[in-house]
């Protein structure tokens, strides 16, 4: 996480501008998701260490609210902007708006939907194809390459979640004794993940492996509570 927070600030500070930023606007998709909270606190910690002022805004999962927040950052004259996108499809409009203002822009966590990021815009996040493949290969190994697989998709509007899911499907298809029996979205949420798992088990679904697009949905408490263990 230290490398992530440093990379974010370095990207925001140095992206197409000769001067170091003094103020950075940060719009997060949600404040109440654990991983995003870790990112937010890490940015704040690194910024304070560098003497940078950061303004955080919670988009609360609303694309329109996030767009307004970015516009407000531009109007306020911030030196750089960091965005954790609510929706991958919304980023081309955000990129266009921010680059017109000649402000460096860093997308974090959720893969932006731009076909190609314009100059002055960068993405800091994981390689979703590698993540999904490594995840499912390890789950397959632990299950001795057999069993019924349930997939918890993060968000159907998130390009990263869809890519991870495709990679899980690709790995499962390699092994004749494995098959996907359920595949539904739980919106990256711990509570929705628990509800989804409870529904599957209550309906008598035979599940040996659960592949979730993020840690929150895959929290072990979900399954213990859902199964009554």
From TrEMBL:
Where does it mainly reside?
other
Q: Can you say where in the cell this protein is located?
A: Cell envelope
Q: Name one GO cellular component term.
A: cell envelope
Q: Which UniProt keywords apply?
A: Signal
One Pfam annotation reads Peripla_BP_4
Signal sequence extent: 1-21
**GO MF annotation list:** carbohydrate binding
Q: From its record, what is one biological process in GO terms? A: transmembrane transport
Which Gene3D superfamilies does the protein's record reference?
A: 3.40.50.2300
Q: Which protein family is it in?
A: Belongs to the bacterial solute-binding protein 2 family.
- What is this protein called in UniProt? D-galactose/ D-glucose-binding protein
């Amino acid at each position: 996480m230290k490398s992530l927070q440093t990379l974010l600030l370095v990207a925001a500070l140095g992206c197409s501008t000769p001067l170091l930023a003094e103020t950075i606007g940060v719009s997060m998709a949600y404040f109440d998701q654990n991983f995003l909270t870790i990112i937010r606190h890490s940015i704040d910690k690194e910024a304070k260490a560098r003497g940078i002022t950061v303004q955080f805004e919670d988009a609360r999962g609303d694309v329109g609210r996030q767009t307004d927040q970015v516009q407000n950052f531009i109007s306020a004259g911030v030196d750089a902007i960091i965005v954790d996108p609510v929706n991958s499809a919304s980023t081309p409009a955000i990129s266009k708006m921010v680059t017109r203002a000649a402000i460096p822009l860093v997308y974090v966590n959720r893969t932006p939907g731009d076909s190609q990021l314009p100059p002055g815009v960068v993405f800091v996040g994981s390689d979703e194809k590698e993540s999904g493949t490594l995840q499912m290969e390890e789950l397959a190994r632990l299950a001795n390459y057999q069993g019924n697989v349930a997939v918890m998709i993060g968000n159907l509007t998130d390009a990263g979640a869809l890519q991870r899911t495709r990679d899980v499907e690709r790995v499962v298809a390699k092994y004749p004794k494995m098959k996907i029996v359920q595949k539904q979205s739980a919106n990256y949420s711990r509570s929705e993940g628990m509800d989804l798992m409870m529904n599957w088990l209550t309906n008598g679904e035979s599940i040996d492996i659960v592949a979730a697009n993020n840690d929150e949905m895959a929290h072990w408490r979900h399954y213990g509570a859902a199964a009554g263990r």
